[in-house]
Amino acid sequence: MAGKSFIEVYEAWRDAARAFSVDSIVQTALDVLAVKRQSRHEEVSHAPWLTLLIVKWVCQDQCTSGHRRITVAEFDGLRQALWEFPSHLEMGVRESLPVHLFLRQLIRPQIDFQRPGGMGFVREAALLAAQPANSKLRRLFEARTGLSVENYIDLAWLLYGTVKGSKPIEEWVAVANELYPDALPAFIETISLDLEGLKAFARSLPDAEKKVASELFEFPVLKRYPLLRTTNGALRCWHPVVLQRGLEGLVHAILSEDGQTYMQLFSKLFEKHVVDQAASLPGTFYGEADLREWLGPQSEVPDGLLSVQGINIFVESKSAMFDESVMTLGHAEIFRKRTESLAKAISQARAASGGIRAAARAPSHVRAAAKDFLLVVTNKEVSVGRGDRLATMYPAGALNALPSKSGLLSLERVYFLSIEDFERLVAGCREGGKQIAQVLEECERADSDAESRVFYFEQRLVALPFPKWTDGRGYSLARTLRVRHRYAGELRAIGDVIPDMAAQLHRTGF
Q1: Measuring CA to CA, which residue among 130, 120, 163, 133 is closest to residue 250?
Q2: Angle, helix 72-83 to helix 22-34, in steps of 10 degrees
Q3: 227: part of which helix (H) or strand (E)?
Q4: What is the DSSP letter of 368?
Q5: Among 60, 53, 58, 23, which residue's Cα sits nearest to residue 222?
Q6: CB atoms within 10 A of CB 377
Q7: Helix (H), strand (E) at residue 416
Q8: Residue 54, SS3 per DSSP
């Protein structure tokens, strides 16, 4: 089969899968995923994303007519065939891929299955909970789900703790039904599907009709509905990590169905959160209005600038869909078009960097800064790293052509951070005794050496002296989450499954 097209290899696999009933494949997938592994490394070696890709593909196939129940050995054969797909494909296009774009594609699912969980699974809901009761976003969420934001947070927290602690879902249902009998049915409807609903969801996806090789590298799309309702009325979780990642983006996924109407509202909310985080750091923070006062009212400028230790740190928030197709793209020009907002952030910051030096109204310490950095904070991990790496993923010269009136903001000093990493960076600097300028200069020095360079900014955060009890994750949510004090007791009741969570709740005044 060497040298065949992806669609040829896929169709051969699909024809083999058609011999079996869809329900037996789905049930076997759940059983395979439920097997406990000894370590995270062992779990990743079993490629759970491929198991879930089998579920997606068989549910999308409208011509499946098999009635025979699949055995575990036969299921393993389908999964092994998926694993071997790349060895059968024509490699010309693959060899022409920019190396970092290929690497980004290849490690996408592995990284998300290895990244530890944190309180970020309620971040989006917490931001909504901090809004007035009559805010458009809150009302939109409640209309879409039939849930108050507070009840959603409570139920998600309890579910996460139950699954994280390997407790039966039935235990969560019993506790949740006692505490939230009116809200529980709507919550279950929001995060789960039965088999027929699963098929309908899979067939509604953009790639349902046209199979593409990048699907082999996607994080499972079933994170939108991390629970399955079985025929006997029970609930089963596809995988703890799928639940974790699903809850992290669930509010965004639900509300984004309203398209640009929602995105405009969410972008403003997300920008305020990022700006508030940056402004909480030691140093002098200047907002967008300040930058426009220096550079002119029509200037396109970043969201803010933090001046600290003779260094300017521009901060720009970018909230977009950044869906799975963006995360697994293997074509440089298409990738550039789908991530134009990232390039725009660099362009704006470079123009501001140069313009400030000639702006008489800008404070003297800002104009005299020895170097500039740019932190582009995205609402989810986009797996880009630094500006110079983004340049290698784009067609040759695409980023270098961006305007630059000064050399003080090089691509090597542009970092792309997920909101989780940005919150953790802020927490580390605020609580760990380091200035953010010092941290960024250390990152710049380490990344200038090929031997110590890293792919993800998160890898730099691990080395920072964060307070152990928070691990830096989710710390910034302490002022926005509305969590009832009774959680301490409830979390103990389901097995103390989130380390030090009860103590953390009391320490932060929840």
Answers
A1: 120
A2: 80
A3: strand 227-229
A4: T
A5: 53
A6: 28
A7: strand 414-418
A8: helix
- The pTM assigned to this predicted structure is 0.85
> DSSP states of 146-184 as a string?
S--HHHHHHHHHHHHHHHHTT--HHHHHHHHHHH-TTTH
Task: Name the nearest CA neighbour of 313 among 278, 269, 348.
Answer: 278
What Cα–Cα distance (Å) separates residue 204 from each residue in 61, 201, 207, 222, 255? 12, 5, 8, 12, 17
What is the rounded CA–CA span in Å between residue 308 and residue 366?
9
- φ, ψ dihedrals at 281, nearest 5°: -80, 155
φ/ψ of 313, rounded to 5, equals -120, 105
Is 376:415 a contact under the CB 8 Å cutoff?
A: yes
**Nearest alpha-carbon partner for 399 in 386, 407, 387:** 387
Tokens representing 471?
């691990």
As a whole number of angstroms, the distance between CA 93 and CA 105 comes to 14
287 with 304: CB under 8 angstroms?
yes
What DSSP assignment string belongs to 64-117? ----BPPPHHHHHHHHHHHHTHHHHB--HHHHTS-HHHHHHHHHHHHHHHHSPP
Do the Cβ atoms of 135 and 491 come closer than 8 Å?
no
Q: Write the DSSP symbol of residue 46.
A: T
Tens place of pLDDT for every residue, the chain, 510 residues? 457 888 999 999 999 999 999 999 999 999 999 988 877 777 777 889 999 999 999 999 988 777 899 999 999 999 999 998 877 776 444 445 677 788 888 788 888 888 777 777 888 888 888 889 899 999 999 999 999 998 998 899 889 888 888 888 998 999 889 889 999 999 999 999 999 999 999 999 988 888 888 898 899 999 999 999 998 889 999 999 999 999 998 998 898 887 777 888 888 999 999 999 999 999 999 999 999 999 999 999 999 999 999 999 999 999 877 777 788 888 889 889 989 999 999 999 999 999 999 899 999 999 999 999 999 999 888 889 899 899 989 988 887 655 544 568 999 999 999 998 898 888 888 777 788 999 999 999 988 888 888 888 888 887 665 543 333 333 333 333 333 334 444 444 433 333 333 333 333 332
Positive or negative, the CA dihedral 438, 440, 445, 449 is positive
What amino acid is encoded at 354 in this protein? G
Q: Do residues 340 and 272 touch, judged by C-beta distance below 8 A?
A: no
- Which uninterrupted H or E stretch holds 325? helix 324-327
> Cα separation of 431 and 232, whole Å?
50
Cα-based torsion angle of the residue sequence 459, 463, 464, 469 in order, rounded to the nearest 10 degrees:
90
CA–CA separation, 420 and 426 (whole Å): 10
In 3D space, the residue among 157, 153, 161 whose CA is nearest the CA of residue 129 turns out to be: 153
